[in-house]
Design brief:
about 300 residues; alpha/beta; Rossmann fold; Methionyl-tRNA Fmet Formyltransferase, Chain A, domain 2; 3 domains; seven-stranded mixed β-sheet; six-stranded antiparallel β-sheet; about 30% strand
Length: about 300
Amino acid sequence: MSLSWPIVFMGTPGAAALSLEQLLKGPDPVVGVVTQPDRPAGRGQRSIPSPVRRVAERYRIPVATPEKLRAPAFLETLRSWAPELIVVVAYGRILPRSVLDLPAQGCLNVHYSLLPKYRGAAPVAWAILNGDEKSGVTTMRLVEKMDAGPVFLQAEVALAPDETTASLEAKLVPIGARLLWETIQGLKNGSITPKPQREEEATYASMLKKEDGRIDWTQPAKSIERRVRAYYPWPSAYTYRKGKLLKIYRAAVIAEEAGALPGEVVRADKGGLWVVTGAGILSLEEVQLENRKRLTGAEFLKGARIEKGEHF
């Protein structure tokens, strides 16, 4: 077996782009990149290439953006690149067997959870939603069943009390890039062996939807505060005030009870903006009203004229 493995990289968002950049610093040539097709974005709905595509083009690596992974033309392109290994990081689709079986060394995936916990599309957010004390990164061999393949390496990360999806991803992504490199080297020198996952311990992290961010004030304050952190930067936790969207970026649980209905404002002064929940009170620490600037709760109150007794 040669010391150098031709690699095809499959990924789409910024997290995957960092892994690709790290891979390009190693000894193995990246002979092709597969990423999601350009998507319209922004007010002008201009077609925007993925972060992975931008990295690939900067390094002049051939890029494929298939709409269908089973398309004969795409499979022929993949075969022409002749990869020894396919590396997959946040590509965004489940790979068919025709792709999984193509490289001699199979397909290697970086997943941002400690598998078998949180298989699926949003493992980082769900770790925060569930109040976990730790998260991590797993490298594994891809199989047809989602995130169920044998594990190569794992690394744990402790969650801070104020952890958001954005801050946790910032911790996990560089660790994932390092584990990816270590896994490839271990496979090449035979020092690591894949270990099967315990199916009975598997849990799932379903994809987030925009509507998930809407706050249900009948939920406990502790649960809502976790949602504020888990849904940052997307889809954002939000409520409505007088028909206008109000995003909540930071919140704190107040260890008090109030004889009021969920969603009712019980404090709106220099001491804070407090809203009753199904259990406890939530202080809105940083917010953004539709078409306005992002402000601290105190700054928001100066212009919003919110009164005690108002309902969200």
